[in-house]
């Protein structure tokens, strides 16, 4: 497999990720917790705010944005993936992270 090197993004395991704030609650996130065990995040991967449970998406620069309605519908269409998201949200809501 050749890639020539040009324009290749090298992704190190779990970062360092650029500092990113949750667009919903402004919670500062500098790392990622992987729910599904597939390794480092990639652009387009789904993340969840550890503070408010907002479903987020990694952009090309690894900052986070909210997912839109169409993306949520897409996530819900994958039952196993949606189950992971719902489980994570339940844990976040239950713990009610308030150590800010
Ligand atoms: Zn948040």
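-> sequence recovered:
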């Amino acid at each position: 497999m050749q890639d020539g090197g040009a324009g290749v993004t090298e992704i190190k395991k779990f970062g360092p990720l650029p500092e990113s704030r949750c667009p919903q609650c402004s919670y500062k996130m500098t790392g990622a917790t992987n729910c599904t065990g597939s390794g480092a995040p990639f652009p387009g991967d789904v993340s969840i705010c550890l503070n408010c449970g907002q479903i987020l998406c990694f952009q090309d620069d690894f900052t986070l944005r909210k997912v839109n309605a169409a993306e949520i519908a897409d996530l819900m269409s994958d039952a196993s993936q949606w189950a992971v998201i719902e489980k994570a949200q339940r844990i976040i809501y239950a713990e009610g992270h308030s150590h800010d």
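The helical segments are 69-76, 79-95.
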